[in-house]
């Protein structure tokens, strides 16, 4: 069966926890927005976080703030506490930022900023939300990492450094919390058609040609949709994925399974 945008999981009886809220970061756009919409369709309680003032969640379930700041997470913990005595059912981290620049000229401050958002922004969430999950011996964290957690990409050194660190942090957290009944995993997307990717393409000299090239080097022959990643995030956060812990699940349409050595188009 081919999964088309809008199809699939929303029609399935996905065994997600509806008694405690899921916390989704980066919910104002792209992958985070798609997973929030899907959770709402599945009748889950959702608390969202984003720099943006709103998300698909009801306004009283949204925290507008920076995931790199502990004050934001205090507001998240307070909101989760008002909704449930048992903490959050899950944490899905999608907030992320990029810098497109040669390593030689990228200011160390940019490396530091991306590390704070892409890596420490997830650490804060784990440190604030996982203890209650561990107490109940039930819960999950799914972090959106990147294929850049595993491979280097031209002019993306600050981003790849932060996403590589994120993956190692996720594996470390998974090892320590598996025995507490909390599963922690990373998803490593390839090229997903979102505002972030369009920002990346727009930094090239010919954005349309860059998009065609990206589609061409992806064996699937297309950019993936945010909803396709949302399906995976919800699966990993659900008991259907009870065997999966500390994994880095690549979701890239085959991008990193091969190399571009085609003799013909
Ligand atoms: N789009 C891709 O091709 C791709 C590929 C691999 C990984 N990713 C990762 O997927 C995740 C989601 O990206 P997307 O493509 O949906 O991007 P997006 O720009 O559409 O959405 C990212 C959201 O994160 C929010 N955000 C950014 N910095 C934040 C901060 N400091 N605090 C709170 N919110 C913040 C933004 O406001 C935005 O709403 C990111 O972690 C990104 O690195 C994306």
Could you provide a short overview of the structure?
It is built from seven helices and seven strands. The chain has helices at residues 30-41, 70-83, 108-136, 157-178, 195-202, 207-217, 226-237; strands at 22-25, 46-50, 62-64, 90-93, 139-144, 182-189, 248-251.
Helix content: 40-55%
Radius of gyration: 18 Å
CATH class call? Alpha Beta
* Mean pLDDT level: 95
List its traits.
globular, Rossmann fold, disordered N terminus, 265 residues, 7 strands, binds nicotinamide-adenine-dinucleotide, 7 helices, alpha/beta
Q: How do the helices and strands line up, and which of them pair or pack?
A:
Elements: E1 22-25, H1 30-41, E2 46-50, E3 62-64, H2 70-83, E4 90-93, H3 108-136, E5 139-144, H4 157-178, E6 182-189, H5 195-202, H6 207-217, H7 226-237, E7 248-251
Helix pairs in contact: 1-7, 2-3, 3-4
Bound molecules: nicotinamide-adenine-dinucleotide (NAD).
3D architecture notes:
The protein is an alpha/beta fold and 265 residues long. The protein has helices spanning 30-41, 70-83, 108-136, 157-178, 195-202, 207-217, 226-237; strands at 22-25, 46-50, 62-64, 90-93, 139-144, 182-189, 248-251. It has seven helices and seven strands; from the N terminus they run E-H-E-E-H-E-H-E-H-E-H-H-H-E. It starts with 21 loop residues before the first strand and ends in a 14-residue tail after the last strand. Strands 3-2-1-4-5-6-7 form a seven-stranded parallel β-sheet, with helices on both faces. The chain has a single domain, classed as NAD(P)-binding Rossmann-like Domain (Rossmann fold, 3-Layer(aba) Sandwich), CATH 3.40.50.
């Amino acid at each position: 069966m081919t999964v088309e945008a809008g199809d699939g999981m929303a029609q399935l009886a996905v065994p997600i926890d509806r008694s405690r809220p899921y916390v989704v970061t980066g919910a104002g756009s792209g992958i985070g927005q798609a997973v929030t919409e899907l959770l709402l369709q599945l009748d889950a309680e959702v608390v969202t976080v984003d720099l943006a003032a709103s998300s698909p969640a009801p306004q009283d379930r949204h925290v507008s703030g920076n995931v790199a700041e502990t004050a934001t997470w205090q507001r998240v913990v307070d909101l989760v506490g008002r909704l449930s005595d048992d903490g959050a059912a899950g944490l899905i981290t999608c907030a992320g930022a990029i810098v497109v620049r040669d390593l030689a000229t990228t200011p160390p401050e940019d490396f530091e900023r991306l590390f704070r958002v892409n890596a420490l922004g997830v650490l804060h969430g784990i440190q604030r939300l996982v203890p209650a999950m561990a107490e109940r011996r039930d819960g999950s964290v799914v972090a959106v990492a990147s294929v850049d957690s595993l491979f280097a990409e031209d002019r993306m050194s600050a981003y790849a450094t932060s996403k590589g660190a994120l993956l190692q942090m996720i594996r470390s957290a998974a090892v320590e919390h598996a025995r507490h009944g909390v599963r922690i995993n990373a998803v490593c997307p390839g090229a997903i058609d979102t505002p972030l990717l369009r920002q990346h393409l727009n930094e090239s000299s010919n954005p349309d040609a860059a998009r065609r090239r990206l589609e061409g080097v992806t064996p699937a022959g297309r950019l993936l949709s945010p909803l396709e990643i949302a399906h995976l995030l919800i699966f990993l956060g659900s008991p259907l994925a009870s065997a999966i812990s500390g994994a880095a699940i690549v979701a890239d349409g085959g991008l990193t399974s091969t190399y571009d050595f085609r003799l013909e188009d």
